[in-house]
Amino acid sequence: MSTHHTSSDITTTNPAGTPERFNDPGIPEHRSRMADRDPKAAKRAERQVVVLFVISILGTIGMLVAYFAIQPDGTTAGTRNSNLALGLGLFLSLMGIGLAAVHWAKTLMSDHERSEERHDQRSPDEVRVAAVTALKDGAEDSGIARRGVLKGAVVTALGLFPLTIAVPLIGSVGNDWDVSKFRHTMWKKGTRLATDPAGRPIKASDVTIGSVVHVVPDAPEEERRTHHWITEKAKSVVLIVRLDPADLKEAEDRKDWSYNGIVAYSKICTHVGCPVALYEQQTHHLLCPCHQSTFDVADGAKVVFGPAKRPLPQLPITVDDEGYLIAQDDFNEPVGPSYWERLK
Amino acid sequence: MSSTERAAAGTADYLDQRTGVASAVKGFARKIFPDHWSFLLGEIALYSFVVLLISGVFLTMFFVPSMGLMEYEGPIASMNGQLMSEAFASTLDLSFEVPGGLLMRQIHHWSALLFMAAIVTHMMRVFFTGAFRKPRELNWMVGFILMILGLAAGFTGYSLPDDVLSGNGLRITDGVVKSIPLVGSYMSYMIFGGEFPGEHIIPRLFTLHILVVPALILALIGLHLLFVVLHKHTQYPGGGRTDKNVVGFPLFPVYVAKAGGFFFIVFGVLALMGGTMAINNVWNYGPYDPSPVSAGAQPDWYMLFLEGSLRLMPGQTEFVIAGYTLSLNVLIPAVVVPGLLFTFLAVYPFLEAAVTKDKREHHVLDRPRNVPVRTGLGVAFLAEFILLALAGSNDLIATHFDLSLNAITWVFRVGFFVLPVIAFWVTKRICLGLQRKDRELVLHGHETGRIVRFANGEYIEVHKPISDEERWLRVNYDAHRPLEIEPREDSRGVRRKGFRKDQALQALSRFFYEDRVEPVTPAELAAAHSHGDHDSLGSAEDSESALAIAGAPRDAAPAPDQQSDDHGHMS
Which ranges does the record mark as transmembrane (chain A) (predicted)? Predict the structure, then answer.
């Protein structure tokens, strides 16, 4: 019964002589195991433990044999065989020991439950008093309470010194901290659209209705093999789709951003930045496989479903003299996920 | 004395003279630990961490944490000449050209998944049995931080091979970080050393993954286990087990063999998994390139809830305020929702202590049914977690079951709010029902199916009384009551400080303990046995005779007239 007697809840009355609580029946009686009663069973259990240890020994030997016998030959199948043989050997080597030890403990070691007393975590009162006195004496010895300037100096010095590590670290960890780079991509007036990953410039006439092409800015081979390129590509990837001009809804001010029904949109999702790569020809919907934001390519890449808010930024395109698709300009807004000062 | 004995004695003497180790051995060798399968969950977490260290050291010998670009030359013909980072290339090398390298890599990844799974189930065990109560609240916090560190370890390691899949995971991280108001862009720069992906992220993650995070985990595991030694292990309720003792078997030899053996079993299972089950075949994804992405991509299971949370949030919640963009469509699912879930876990022991006002130490575990609201809250939490994890796989559910992705998402969106409430309510009701069933069993015993007809024509079923152990298990708990608080004004009519806080606490306490089932008292049992005459409840005579029944263990069923009873004794 609870010790809270202040409640108005009705509880059963406690007749004289009836204890408040039931009595603890104590630790249940020990039941002896087969191996405790029958020496034959004990011997059998011992043999089982030995067999398990032997299995482990064989497993270890097997693993070592496999290591030398099955060298990976570079093929997927060879690697798989080596991996399987080594894994099974290791498994037997470990499992044999594990099962042997547990079986030994369960069948042959004493299973008489014992009880051990617990003590409160709390220190006894006299220890607490002694601890407080020790601290007081120490503080007294240091004189910290009396020497105000010293206290201030200690606190200030200790408080300031971490700056010697923190400032250089934080100062350098973010490179130049110039977050305005989010605003610009490699696209410039006249940059040709090239296929990704081959890097071939794209002729407008080669893009058939309903087809979709993954696009990067045209750049020389050496440039495309640098780290700088990967970081720039992360912002510059574009997807072009050619639609039947009758299906295409375009805003007044963007009428000349497409060419012959070919529209180009940033491939970086405006949600958290995954490449939006799944195009559904029938509905003109573009789906982000990460979080299923769905954009309508025929209608300004507006969001029709999912966690993104903004349409994909559109790249204004046209063709050059040779009929290759080119950018009219960079994107007119930062691509990718939103951030605090995005519109500033 | 044999020569080995002499050598052992000599070594022991040498050590003891220099360390005084004998007193530690005396204290620990025969220390008692209780036995229960659910205590193994924490052990699995510990052992999978050891396996992570062993396999991880192996991997560091061959992995090159560099984003420097190189052309691949190696056994995978389809990738020859392809440009990739040294990190990715060395991952291929250690998988295909180092014998046992793939095995270690797969064991490492499986161990990481098992590590998190064991931590989560261990936490569930601790939560549902109330093992976090005084004096173990601080150890719950240590365990909670270990769980967070486990997530950090998994996240930093997952991205190291620099493949397309993990690269897109990093990109999502970048998007989430950017959504943080004011500092988001700068935090993104801080993480990537400039713009995403840059050329710093892999070495940085590597240092965190092999040095900082494991060092913290190791230190906190030490603290976690130190607390276990200080507090001694909790035990399940049962005969002879109290808050003042610990009942079980000695550390040496029983747990040296059982727990030591269990390490080998856990490692063995992980070796079998690494040997037979492929995981994270990065050569199928290819090196990181910001353009491609594959459909049906999933993070490791412990990150699924975050992924699901991101997927469920409708996009309309991005706002522009005074020219600044506030991306609540990212901030809420990726920061606020997990923040709330984790905060609940971290503060729960303190919350329960506050509404219970129970200052005693607890070492005997609760049966989950005996604390219905706690159990209900735990199940509601799990329901939410599982719903979010499923939402993180909504594309796979759509393709596997041929359902509309949008419809599934909407069901999950509604479920996000409704499911935890239903889960809580149903669980609480089940707990209360089980408690009533316990009372029923204690008061009336087991049904035997034996029908007896009296001379007067009355039929009754004979009930077999339950054993003392069975009864003790069902009556030995506290049904906490809602807090009583001091009135608003004291005797002189002065308004009391802190009354509002008390009032709020009391309301919360009511939520916890208003509905409760009290354990059967000896008096109630006596009354139940007293031939159905409730007026005799207070009679000393009757209760004495009933106590005699309740006391000594009996084999045969007592006479039918002592067992007949109606069912009116629910409190």
Answer: 49-70, 82-105
What topology does CATH give the domain B37-286? Cytochrome Bc1 Complex; Chain C (1.20.810)
- At B105, list the tokens: 């890599």
Residues of B in contact with A179 (CB under 8 A): 185-186, 188-189
Test B257 with A173 for CB contact under 8 angstroms.
no
Side-chain-side CA neighbours of B226 within 13 Å: the count stands at: 8
Residue A25 lies in a domain: no
Mean pLDDT to the nearest integer, B181-190: 96
Q: Looking at residue A16, what is its pLDDT?
A: 56
Chain B residue at shortest CA distance from A183? B195
B325 contact A CB<8A? yes
Residue A18, pLDDT > 90, answer no
Q: Give the range among B275-284, B475-484, B491-500, B543-552 with minimum mean pLDDT.
A: B543-552
Pairing of strands A317-319, A325-327: antiparallel
pLDDT above 80: residue A11 = no
Window B:481-520, CB contacts with A under 8 Å:
481-482, 484, 518-519
- What does the DSSP assignment read for B49-84? HHHHHHHHHHHHTT------EEE--SS-GGGTT-EE
In this prediction, what percent of chain B has a pLDDT beyond 70?
Answer: 93
Domain membership flag for residue A103: yes
B545-550: Cβ within 8 A, 24+ apart: B547/A17, B547/A18, B547/B522, B549/B465, B550/A22, B550/B471, B550/B522, B550/B525, B550/B526
Please answer whether residues B67 and B200 qualify as being in contact, where contact means their C-beta atoms are separated by less than 8 angstroms: yes
Q: Say how many CA atoms lie within 13 Å of B313 toward its Cβ.
A: 25
Which residues of chain B make contact with A27, given a CB cutoff of 8 A? 239-241, 247
User: Which residue's entry shows tokens 């990190």?
Assistant: B87
Q: Beta strands B245-250 and B318-321: pairing type?
A: unpaired
A6 pLDDT more than 90: no
Return the sign of the alpha-carbon dihedral for residues B418, B420, B423, B429. negative
How would you class B169 by CB atoms within 10 Å of its CB: exposed for 0-12, middle for 13-18, buried for 19 or more?
buried
Residue B554's pLDDT is: 37
Check if the beta carbon of residue A123 is closer than 8 Å to that of residue A131.
Answer: yes
Indicate if A212 and A316 belong to the same structural domain. Answer: yes
Instruction: Examine residue A10 and state whether it is found in any structural domain, yes or no.
Output: no
- What's the complex ipTM? 0.92
Q: What residues of chain A, 88 to 147, have a C-beta less than 8 Å from chain B?
A: 88, 90-95, 97-102, 104-106, 109-111, 113-118, 120-121
pTM as predicted: 0.91
- Provide the token pair at B109: 């990844």
**A 9-68 near B (Cβ less than 8 A):** 9, 11-28, 67
Contact call for B295 and A289, based on CB within 8 A: yes
The reply to whether A186 and A290 lie within a common domain is yes
* Inter-chain residue contact B540 with A271, CB threshold 8 Å: no
- What are the tens digits of pLDDT across the range B288-297? 999 998 888 8
Neighbours of A32 (CB within 10 A): 10
How far is Cα of residue A75 from the mean position of the Cα atoms in its chain?
31
- DSSP lists the bridge partners of residue A117 as B245
Cα torsion B306, B310, B312, B317 to 10°: value is 140
Q: What is the dihedral of CA A134, A138, A140, A144, to 10 degrees?
A: -140
> Hey, is the C-beta of A330 within 8 angstroms of any chain B C-beta?
no
Q: Which chain B residue shows the shortest CA-CA distance from A234?
A: B290
Boundaries of domain holding A297: 182-327
| Whether residue A140 sits in one domain with residue A95 | no
Note whether A190 and A242 are same-domain residues: yes
Contact between residue A292 and residue B409 where contact means Cβ atoms under 8 Å apart: yes
How far is A150 from A162, CA to CA, in rounded Å?
20
Which residue of chain B comes nearest to A64, CA vs CA? Answer: B100
Whose tokens are 């790569």? That residue is: A277
